[in-house]
Amino acid sequence: MKVSFSNIAITGIAASLPLNKLDINSLGKQFGDNEVKRIIASTGIKSVGVAKSNMKVSDLFFSASINLLNKLNISPSSIDAIVVVSQTHDAIMPATSVMLQHRLGLSKNAVAFDISYGCSGYIYGLYQASMLVNSGGCNRVLLCVGDVITPLLNPDDHQVRMVFGDSGTATLIEKSAGNIDFSLRTDGSGMHHLRAERSGYLYMNGAEIMEFALREVPPIIEELLNMKNWKKDEVETFALHQANYFMLNYLRKKMQLTKEAVPIAVDNTGNTGSASIPTTLSLIHRRLKDENRLNKVVMCGFGVGLSWASAGMDLSKTAILSPVEI
Amino acid sequence: MKYQYILNEISQLMEIDLNDLNIEQPLDQYGSWDSLVAISTIAMIDQQFNVLLKASELDKCKTLKEIFELVDVKQELMVVDK
């Protein structure tokens, strides 16, 4: 699916991370120091945020949203819709977005709903928000994307414990001058490679996901570049899903992109799933601003589903805030 | 050349001396053949030879020799496709 929206802009991005961290080196006792060192060298992940047991994903969304609304001086009552993208909703029901409508003090007139999505979820959230604005019903949409994924990690599965971390993000999408182009794809035949049953741990077949990413990410980015009529070397930032250093570095080399254009910011957050793209922008926004790397931005999320999606936009006027920790 | 390149890379990934690798020895007999090495092998072969092995195909390879044969077959198929 390819689609372009006009009169739409991302006006603000914020992230909230757990104050509590897991130092990956500390897992040496359990999995062996050499093994842990070998994996850190490959993934680039030294610590991950781990929400304490009383912290829900809505707490991360709340703190990111409040920070964003306060800094941008936006009244909660002016928000027409709240969309939550997560796979670790607070409860089976009601929807996390509905809880946040009340907690954030949004109008009862606001539309609120959840979407269940993982690594490609940020792009899906932007796509949904763009549709809400484009339909004419909403001028301002709050998009909350992220997970508290660590409770789903098997303590004995080093492949996932040394990689995944928690994060919650908030993004404002508004009717404004600008446009966003999307390309989105789905292949449910790969559903077995990354999954969590209702009462089980997260399972990932790393080799299958690697093969999938190397196969599918370059073409969908190429397609997005064609839609935007952008050449590869004029794109200032490729904000890719932050799976791990190893995978991003291979994708970068395969697509012949410069190191500067493909930020990797996994070292102290890990793979934060759907939150990884806005979390990365939040972590490194100063450098991107200083280096004038926000005029032509390509995002690409890929993973669980299997699902992969890409979007292109201008973020030079977007207020991107540094992460808060709670 | 091709086999030697793959062997060199895999010996580094597995942290095993090149001379200690036997291409006919079952991979599961090496303690350090694991998912991280498999992932890295897929990426390395894709990058160096433009051949994307399927994870399921690599999983069926019992020895390094079988990995070489798989790469050969995939490369021949690419020539036919062109």
Binned strand content of chain B: under 5%
- Report the total helices of chain B: 4
Q: Approximately how much helix is present in the residues of chain B?
A: 55-70%
Largest interface here, residues on each chain?
A-B, 17 and 17 residues
What's the gyration radius of chain B in Å?
12 Å
Rg of chain A, alpha carbons: 18 Å
The residue-averaged pLDDT of chain A reads 97
Low-pLDDT runs of chain A = none
Number of strands of chain B: 0
Relevant terms:
heterodimer; A: 326 residues; alpha/beta; 10-stranded mixed beta sheet; two-stranded antiparallel sheet; 9 helices; 28% strand; B: 82 residues; mainly alpha; 4 helices; 0% strand
A few lines on this structure:
Chain A has 326 residues and is α/β, with parallel strands linked by helices.
Report on this structure:
The complex is a heterodimer of chains A (326) and B (82). Helices cover 32% and strands 28% of the residues of chain A. With 326 residues, chain A is α/β, with parallel strands linked by helices. In chain A, strands 1, 4, 5, 6, 7, 10, 11, 12, 13 and 14 form a 10-stranded mixed sheet that branches. The relative contact order of chain A is 0.22. By secondary structure, chain B is mainly alpha-helical. The mean pLDDT of chain B is 90. Chain B contains 4 helices and no strands. Chain B has helices spanning 2-14, 35-49, 55-60, 64-81. The radius of gyration of chain B is 12 Å and the shape is globular. Chain A binds chain B through residues 38-39, 42, 159, 205-208, 210-211, 214-215, 246-247, 250, 253-254, and chain B through 15, 35-36, 38-40, 42-43, 46-47, 52-56, 58-59.
Architecture blueprint of SSEs:
The complex is a heterodimer of chains A (326) and B (82).
Chain A (H helix, E strand, L loop, with lengths): L1 E16 L3 E3 L4 H4 L1 H11 L3 E3 L7 H15 L9 E6 L9 H8 L7 E6 L4 H14 L5 E8 L10 H4 L5 E20 L7 E3 L5 E3 L1 H23 L8 E4 L4 H10 L21 H15 L6 E7 L3 E7 L5 E2 L3 E2 L1
Parallel strand pairs in A: 1-13, 1-14, 4-5, 4-6, 10-11
Antiparallel strand pairs in A: 1-7, 2-3, 6-7, 7-12, 8-9, 11-12
Helix pairs in contact in A: 3-4, 7-8
Chain B lengths: L1 H13 L20 H15 L5 H6 L3 H18 L1
Helix pairs in contact in B: 1-2
